[in-house]
Amino acid sequence: MYGGIVAGDVGFTDRFTAESPINLNARLKTIDVGACSYLTATLNQGVTGRLTGTVTYHGLMGDMINGAADVNLSLLDGSMELRRPVLGINALDFDTLVASIVLRDRTLKIKKAVIEGKKLDGSFNGVVFLNHNLPLSRIAVKGRMRLLPLEKNFSVTLSGTLARPRHRIR
User: Fold this and answer.
1) Residue 22 CB-density burial (10 A; 0-12 exposed, 13-18 middle, 19+ buried)
2) Which pTM was predicted?
3) Exposed/middle/buried for residue 114 (C-beta within 10 Å: 0-12, 13-18, 19+)
4) Higher pLDDT, 129 or 21
């Protein structure tokens, strides 16, 4: 369905009840994120590429945003549609997007995200404050982006929510 490989271990702290916390260690290899309808619906925009990386998680399956996780991901040969054109760009096409993310206390901390492509490269960090209704999660991310055809650097601020993101470019 999504292609690729998912391998790992799931440990239940109490194997007799589904409400007990779990420990998850997973390795992802070349998962087709474009085929993941949940991701597209949550972000309300198209995302493509092949996802590889590792995920460790401890918490409740029914309340994942209150758990703890460490995530290291690479999205290769991807694209992310933009709701509005930015500097004449309708989509972020990239060769690699590498991210190191931590989940603690309902906050996704993007320790570092680096994007590289033929037309742009950049790096970002910040947080996403998670809401149980994921599209309402608040974004606070800053970074730098370089448009290679223009040979120009920009400062980028992302805010708003996952459902209605806003950006400021200087």
Assistant:
1) middle
2) 0.86
3) middle
4) 129
